[in-house]
Amino acid sequence: MSKEDLGYQVKDNIGHFIINRETQRNALNLETISLFLKHLDQAECDDTVRAVLITGAGDRAFCSGADLGSAAKNRIQEGFRDYARLLKKLAGYPKPVVARINGDCLAGGMGLMLACDIVIARNDVKFGTPEVNVGLFPMMIGALIYRNVLRKKAMEMVLLGHKLDAEQAREMGLITRAVPPQDLDSEVAITLKLLAAKSPIGIKIGKEAFYAMAD
After folding, report:
1. Each residue of 53-68: pLDDT tens digit?
2. Of the candidates 125, 135, 141, which has an alpha carbon nearest to the alpha carbon of residue 159?
3. CA–CA separation, 175 and 148 (whole Å)
């Protein structure tokens, strides 16, 4: 596994992506976003990759959002554009994408998570869109929020900025299921093994049809 800001490797027909910025609570910087786009293209063209897994390093955070403050002014806009490209690419990815939520998932991290097809989380982590607390609004992930959550629940989440526990997130439709921390890896492994055994063509066509009808 690469020790870059985003590690990528293929193992047992699964493309493993891990955000390697534990001390920054796995926030996405320009390099991380660029590497995501690069390796997603690589995984899409690799016939040995049957599914994709996304997670973060450590156990404090899956992803706490964007970390673009240190970038030059002209590159901040580039970062926003590339983040939007990343969400769009994941949301329409032809192979199944699983998020392993190993820690808190906030702000832009919610967009990354919601763009995935299946989300398995520890039952002791927190979720939320706290942007409103600093005078902002989660505009870039709005479409993904409304794709997954009923309108009134979505508005309550983004307007109040409260953190949600895993059970609340599951009830709202933000995640697929919440499991005890000690069961996270086994639950993820079982899901990935089942996905890897399916027909790639059938899954690609099925995903396209499912999201076309949903949207």
Report:
1. 999 999 999 999 988 6
2. 135
3. 9
What is the phi/psi pair of residue 68, to 5°? -110, 0
What does the alpha-carbon distance between residue 214 and residue 1 come to, in Å, rounded to a whole number? 36
Mean pLDDT of 22-47: 95
- In terms of Cα–Cα distance, which of 151, 122, 10 is closest to 56? 122
Whose tokens are 């076309």? That residue is 212
* SS3 labels along the chain: CCCCCEEEEEECCEEEEEECCHHHCCCECHHHHHHHHHHHHHHHHCCCCCEEEEEECCCCEEECCECCCCCCHHHHHHHHHHHHHHHHHHHCCCCCEEEEECCEEECHHHHHHHCCCEEEEECCCEEECHHHHHCCCCCCCHHHHHHHCCHHHHHHHHHHCCCEEHHHHHHHCCCCEEECHHHHHHHHHHHHHHHHCCCHHHHHHHHHHHHHHHC
Q: Note if the pTM is more than 0.90.
A: yes
Q: Are 80 and 36 spatial neighbours (Cβ–Cβ below 8 Å)?
A: no
Tell me, what's the pLDDT at 213?
85
Tokens matching residue 127: 């979720």
